[in-house]
Every structure is written in structure tokens, then in C-alpha cells.
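Check these lines:
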Amino acid sequence: MGKLTYGMNVSVDGYTADANGDLGWSTPDDELHQYWNDRTAQVALSLYGRKLYELMAAHWPTAGQAPDVPPVEAEYARLWLAMPKVVFSRTLESVDWNSRLERGDVVEVARRLKAETDGLMEVAGATLAAPLVRAGLVDEFHVLVTPAAIGGGTPFFPSLDAWLKLELLENRTFASGAVLLRYKPVLG
């Protein structure tokens, strides 16, 4: 059975993107980028929504080929291209780069994929994660608090019908001031 994780860079006020969808405030330094590289190298399957997939697919397939690309980014490009991805979309006609298209219900498909997958799975993006968080399918949260307040936008956690209690599994501070908070849901 797969272990489904959800992690993103998050502003100190709890957002993954600003009100305009901009992620520029969360650009990681090399140390933080290496953290994401190490995580991506462990992922057996990644779940993407259309918007984040299009954003990633517009950059990473060629990012590693740029002559001045930092080694940590070139490594991430290789890892991202090799990582198996399931892209949820009703509008895309096709996907590339070790991806397959899925049009079914996100919760039902994620439940099936967890049962079929050995190893670590991740859900990429707050919008796609929201129904999975509400359905109780997320096994771990990786909240990477970035030292920036952006005043609004897309929240990391969706609105919930009940409290979601969490147990801290790990905390780590990066030189940039970013802080990793890794939690698991407390069931019961």
C-alpha cells in the first residue's frame, strides 16, 4: 500500500500561492531545493492537477539543458522527468514526460492508486490535495514554511468540516530561515 504525502512551500501566513497564483516568493535556495530533490527521488508516483502540471511541464523538461543551470536544478529536472505522474484533467488531451492522464474522481482514483502502489506517493498542489485531505487519504504533511507573508491566496489546508489533529514527526530549520514541519494525522 502506498503512503500518500502532501507537501509544499508555504508562506508564514499559510498560503502556497499568492492571490494572483504567483509562486515567486517561494523560490528555494540550493539547500531547500536539495531537500525537494531528495524527496522527489523517493517518490514512486506523483499526482498532479492540470494547472500545476502545466506549470511544471513548461519549465522542467528543458531546464536541465540550460548552460548556466545550477547543478541542484539540473538534478531536479532529471528526477521530475523520470518520476511517474498521474495528471487529473478533464480538458487536457494528452500529457508527456512519464505521465498519464486521469479523468476519474480524484478521491476514488487516489484510493485505488494507494492500494496499487508500493512506496511513497505525493499529491502536488493545494487544489488537488483539498479533496484528498478532506477524505482522510493523506498520510503525511510536509509543510515547508518560507519566511515570507503574502497576505492571501491559495491556502495549504482546505476548509475542513472537523478539526484535523496532527502529530509532529520532524522539524528542521534551513539556513534561509525556512522551517520544515512534517506531520501525520492523529486518527481517532
